[in-house]
Amino acid sequence: MLKNKMTALVFTLMLLLIFGVASIGHIPVAVADESSTYQELQIFTDVLTIVKRSYVEEVPIKDLVYGAIDGMLASLDPHSGFMSPEIYKEMKVDTRGEFGGLGIEISLRDGRLTIVSPIEDTPASRAGLQAGDNILKIEDQFTKDMKIMEAVHLMRGAVGTEITITIMRPSFEKPQAFTLEREVIKVKSVKAKTLEKGFGYVRLAQFQERTGSDLAQALDTLSQENNEDLQGLVLDLRNNPGGLLDQAVEVSDRFLADGLIVYTRGREDDAQMEFSAMRSGTEPDYPMVVLINGGSASASEIVAGALQDHDRAVIMGTQSFGKGSVQTIIPLSDDSGLRLTTAKYYTPNGTSIQARGIVPDITVQQVEIKEMKDFNHFREKDLKNHFIIEGDASEGEQQEVPMLDEETREDFQLMRALDLLKGWRIFQGLKAA
């Protein structure tokens, strides 16, 4: 009698959980074969009852239910998962651009915990962690079969405390341990500067709640610095792990006057979405280069794909990460949550980025630049008694060369992007002449 009551109670609980989750998330559940569904649920409740009754130690029913949900979502895809109330609370902080941790975006690649990209000016980036690094251990725990949410929870902790993670990358002969000190991660999503007169640079580190509006402000500042005559722009999306879909749309819309930006396709009506550009607030049609690499993922790929398909920008760098799916965050009644893949997104030309990424128009690998000064040559002006052209005020003076900061000069991909923009301006001038 007690067993039957327990089975009925658990069975009812699971029905409420399964159908209640859909209600909370406003996603209706369609049951193709109701009898088959109930049969499968009966097997589940039988197992749950047996574990509850016969397992060597007593386990709270909540832990069993959480474990079951966690396992169910882990069987779907690398980006779906269950979040306990603690992890769900941390996740909500992430999109606001301030949280405690190391400063890395992680994913599962071929079952291995992999760094998608380190976030700029964080313990991870300063320690030299790179996109594509495999995390083998977090402290003393091996990450084999570890879920993303579990890894995130382990790596976060009190500010000022240290954590050691063991990394393997292709260039390592053996795994190396990195000890990092946790910090409050404050991500400034938009950085901008003038490279040379007329040429601007904007770096998007992540897509957060204010990225679109911060970008608009940065572009206005660049325009003022260049006397309202911006002749070219480098948009840097390298190592940008993504973020909010609506902000990716807003950023794309800033550079497109009309046309489709991105569309999504999923099983539910709510997953069939299309986003188009509007003419209002569109930037002037100056030449653009968008920089991407293997750490550019998700929302970054939406922007790069839209600008590439509309021939609005030249995409330069290396192939992007290839995350072409949309995750919906669904809150549950006990303050836990689901991160569920509900759709795939497509570029305006109908290309799915999933596992393929954005292929750059011009492939440029990042290499280390070492400047070589021209000490071995002298010029005509160095010869004794050389002719001096009358009225040449520049005699004896060095020609003014725009001074780029050291960080820019050492960034090979950025320098090639700037060269391309300058070459385009020269070519346009020749055509006009």
Write up what this structure looks like.
This protein is α+β, with helices and mostly antiparallel strands and about 425 residues long. It has 3 domains: about 1-85, no CATH class; about 100-185, Pdz3 Domain, CATH 2.30.42; about 190-365, 2-enoyl-CoA Hydratase, Chain A, domain 1 (Alpha-Beta Complex). It has 11 helices and 19 strands. The chain has helices at about 1-25, 35-55, 60-75, 85-95, 125, 150-155, 210-225, 245-255, 300-310, 405-410, 410-430, and strands spanning about 80-85, 100, 105-110, 110-120, 135-140, 140, 160-170, 175-180, 185, 190-195, 200-205, 230-235, 260-265, 275, 290, 315, 325-330, 335-345, 360-365. The strands form 5 sheets. It has a 6-stranded mixed beta sheet with strand order 10-11-12-15-16-19, with helices on both faces. Strands 1, 13, 14, 17 and 18 form a 5-stranded antiparallel beta sheet that branches. The chain has a 4-stranded antiparallel beta sheet with strand order 6-5-7-8. Strand 5 (about 135-140) and strand 6 (about 140) form a beta hairpin. Helix 1 (about 1-25) packs across helix 2 (about 35-55) and helix 7 runs parallel beside helix 8 (about 245-255). The chain is globular and about 105 Å long. The protein starts with a helix and ends with a helix.
